[in-house]
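thread: overnight batch results

M.L. [08:02]
morning all. the overnight job finished for the chain we discussed friday. pasting input first so we're all looking at the same thing
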Amino acid sequence: MSLPETHMPIEELRRTPASDVKKIGWRGVMRDVEQHGAVAVTNHRELQAVIMSRETYDSIQHALHMASRTVESGLESLRRKFDQRLRVLSGPTAGERLRSVMGHAGTQLRGEVKAGESF
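M.L. [08:03]
and the structure it wrote out:
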C-alpha cells in the first residue's frame, strides 16, 4: 500500500469554507474529495480540518507504520552492536587487556584518538 498520487502540501489543498460544506452537504464534500484527493475546510479563512477518503487515511497510516518499523529496526541493530561491544568490558580478560594497553610503553597518543575493537 502506498500513498496516493494526490498527496501534496496542506497549503496546496483545495480549500472550502465550513459554510459551503453545510450548503453542499456530505455528498458534495465527498465528490470534492474524490476529485481533489483531499479538501481543507476553513473557518474564517483559518484551516480547521482536512477531509480525505478512508483509503487515503489507511495509506498514510500504513506508511507511518512502515517508517516506524524501519527506524526501530535500525535502532535495534545499533543497540545489539553496542551491547556486544560492551560485553567485552565484563569478560574475564577485560582487566588484563586494559592493563596491557595502558601499561604498554610504546602506546603514545600524540594527539590522536585510539579506538576500535582492538582496545
